[in-house]
C-alpha cells in the first residue's frame, strides 16, 4: 500500500507572462487620432500659409503671386512708407494704453466683485456683455456716441455748455484715442472675468493670515495676491496683446482709417494692399511684420511660463 503520508509534490508557480509596455507612439492612441484633424489644420493652414506668405513677401507679386524674387525691396518700401509708419505708431499707442488701462480697470472691477457684493451676477453680466458683441457693432455704437452732431457733444451742449467740444473721431490728432475708448469698453469685461477667476482661486487662509499680521488691503494685493496670480496675469496680457496686433474691425467701423490715414493700423494696411491696391508683395511683407509682432509678444510669454522653472 502506498504511503499516504508521502507529501504530494507542489506545482511550481509559472512566471507571469511578461507584457511589454506599448511604444510611446501608440500611447493614448484614441486621443491622438481625435487630435489629428486639428494638428493637420494647424500645420497646413497656419504654418503652411505663414511660410507661403513669408516666401512671397520677397517677390514683386502684384495681382497674382509669382516667383520673381527681389530680396528685401518690399520691406524697404514698407518701412519708408508714411502710411505704414502711421499705422505702426497708432497700434503702439493703442496697444500700450489698452494694456495698461484694461489690466487696471479689469483688476479693479474684479476686486470689487470678489467682495461678494449684492447682485454680483447682474453686475458681472453687465460688464461682460460688451465682449459678446462683434467689433463691428461696438465700432458703430461708439461712432454714434462720439459723433458731435448727436452724441456726447450734442447732449452736453444741450445742457448749457455751448463751448464744449468732444469729437475725437473727427480730429486727426486724437482719433486713435476715440478708438481706444471703444476697445476698452469691449475688452475690459473679459479681463475682469479672468482676474475674478484668479482671485477666487486664492485660498481664504491667505487673506486671514494677512489680516492677522496687520497687512493693509492695498499691500496684500500688491505684495501677496498679484504675485500668486502670475499665470492669470500672463494669460490676460497675451490675450489682450494678440487682439491689439490684429485690431481692424473697430477702425473700419468707426473711422475707416480716417480722417485721411490718421487712424490707419497694420491690419488695414495689409487688407488694402492685398485687395484694393492689388499689391500682393507689399501686403505679404506687411503681414510678415505683423507675424513678427506676434512672435515678439509670445517670447516673453513662454519665458515667463517656462523659462524660470528649474527642472526637477
Give the SSE map.
Elements: H1 29-56, H2 73-79, H3 82-113, H4 120-132, H5 135-145, H6 152-158, H7 175-200, H8 204-212, H9 217-228, H10 230-245, H11 249-254, H12 266-276, H13 280-307
Helix pairs in contact: 1-13, 2-13, 3-7, 3-10, 4-7, 5-7, 7-10, 10-13, 12-13
Plain-language structure description:
The chain is mainly alpha-helical and 312 residues long. The chain has a single domain (82-307), classed as MetI-like fold. The chain has helices at residues 29-56, 73-79, 82-113, 120-132, 135-145, 152-158, 175-200, 204-212, 217-228, 230-245, 249-254, 266-276, 280-307. The longest helix has 32 residues, at 82-113. The chain starts with 28 loop residues before the first helix and ends in a 5-residue tail after the last helix.
In short:
Belongs to the binding-protein-dependent transport system permease family. This protein is mainly α.
Distance between the termini: 71 Å
- Give the overall shape: flat
Number of helices: 13
Superfamily (CATH H level) name: MetI-like
CATH architecture: Orthogonal Bundle
Instruction: Output the CATH topology.
Output: MetI-like fold
Helix content: 55-70%
Q: Report the CATH C-level class.
A: Mainly Alpha
Q: Give the H and E element order.
A: HHHHHHHHHHHHH
Fraction of residues in β-strands? under 5%
Average residue-wise pLDDT = 85
| Poorly predicted runs of 5 or more residues | 1-10
Please count the beta strands (DSSP E, at least 2 residues each). 0
Amino acid at each position: 500500500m502506498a504511503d499516504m503520508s508521502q507529501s504530494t509534490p507542489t506545482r511550481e508557480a509559472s512566471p507571469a507572462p511578461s507584457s511589454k509596455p506599448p511604444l510611446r507612439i501608440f500611447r493614448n492612441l484614441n486621443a491622438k487620432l481625435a487630435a489629428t484633424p486639428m494638428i493637420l489644420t494647424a500645420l497646413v493652414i497656419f504654418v503652411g500659409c505663414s511660410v507661403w506668405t513669408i516666401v512671397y513677401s520677397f517677390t514683386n507679386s502684384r495681382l497674382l503671386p509669382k516667383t520673381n524674387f527681389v530680396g528685401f525691396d518690399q520691406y524697404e518700401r514698407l518701412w519708408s512708407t508714411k502710411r505704414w509708419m502711421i499705422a505702426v505708431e497708432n497700434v503702439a499707442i493703442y496697444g500700450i494704453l489698452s494694456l495698461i488701462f484694461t489690466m487696471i480697470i479689469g483688476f479693479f472691477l474684479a476686486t470689487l466683485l470678489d467682495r461678494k457684493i449684492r447682485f454680483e451676477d447682474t453686475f458681472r453680466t453687465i460688464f461682460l456683455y460688451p465682449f459678446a458683441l462683434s467689433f463691428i457693432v461696438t465700432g458703430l455704437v461708439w461712432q454714434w456716441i462720439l459723433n458731435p452732431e448727436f452724441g456726447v457733444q450734442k447732449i452736453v451742449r444741450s445742457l448749457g455748455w455751448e463751448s464744449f467740444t468732444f469729437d475725437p473721431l473727427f480730429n486727426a490728432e486724437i482719433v486713435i484715442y476715440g478708438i481706444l475708448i471703444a476697445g476698452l469698453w469691449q475688452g475690459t469685461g473679459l479681463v475682469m472675468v479672468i482676474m475674478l477667476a484668479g482671485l477666487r482661486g486664492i485660498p481664504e487662509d491667505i487673506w486671514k493670515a494677512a489680516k492677522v499680521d496687520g497687512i493693509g488691503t492695498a499691500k496684500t494685493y500688491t505684495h501677496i495676491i498679484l504675485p500668486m496670480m502670475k499665470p492669470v496675469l500672463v494669460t490676460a496680457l497675451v490675450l489682450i496683446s494678440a487682439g491689439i496686433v490684429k485690431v481692424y474691425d473697430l477702425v473700419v467701423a468707426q473711422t475707416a482709417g480716417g480722417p485721411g490715414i490718421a487712424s490707419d493700423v497694420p491690419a488695414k494696411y495689409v487688407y488694402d494692399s492685398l485687395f484694393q491696391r492689388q499689391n500682393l508683395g507689399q501686403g505679404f511683407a506687411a503681414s510678415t511684420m505683423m507675424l513678427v509682432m506676434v512672435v515678439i509678444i509670445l517670447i516673453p510669454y513662454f519665458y515667463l511660463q517656462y523659462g524660470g522653472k528649474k527642472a526637477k
